[in-house]
User: What shape does this take?
Amino acid sequence: MADTTSTAKGGPHAGGPEIKRRDFLHIATGAVGAVGVAAAAWPFISQMEPSASVVAAGGPMTIDLNKIQPGQQVTVLWRSKPIFIVHRTPEILAKIKEPSDLAMLRDPDSENLQQPPYATNWSRSLTPEYLVLVGICTHLGCIPDFKPDAGDATMAAGWPGGYFCPCHGSKYDMAGRVFQGVPAPLNLPVPPYVIKDKTNLVIGENPEGESFSLSEVMQL
Assistant: This one.
């Protein structure tokens, strides 16, 4: 697969990290939180996989949002990078705005350039329901675990839901914003994307009038 020229400003991971076999298997399905959605395996890339010619060219990838249930995350590869797409529930959206949860974060207002201008907002997204992230920890390039449930028994007390990197313990909330006091210095990047006809999410394209490139983020 073609890769981006992601020589981030000061970032050590130009071109993105190599995805190990363990990580490839790990991101094959997205965990479904306790939001009333039955847990079900989601085939990795499966029906959402673009044609071989599109992959080879590193071109835009279209995802059918109708296939992502509320509370579910799916993961696809775009330009050799894992992309997390989450259909956030109203409960998740309310949680990421709570002052007590915002106080845990290093960059709650997304002041660092880790997302396009159109995702520099409270939800870090074009539309609040759908979160789109590059699933690469900004510490040393591991792939974080999806831990969407607030109060998850496998996490420390007060866990609000989000992402946990098992390599060195970095944590992010359900907007991909990094916690204070963890090794990762920055929020998870948001790639360029657009939503067309309300149901087709296109990774690798910007809304009309925008020109953001993933190479512009501070660190990948």
The longest helix spans residues 21-26. Helices lie at 21-26, 52-57, 90-95, 99-102.
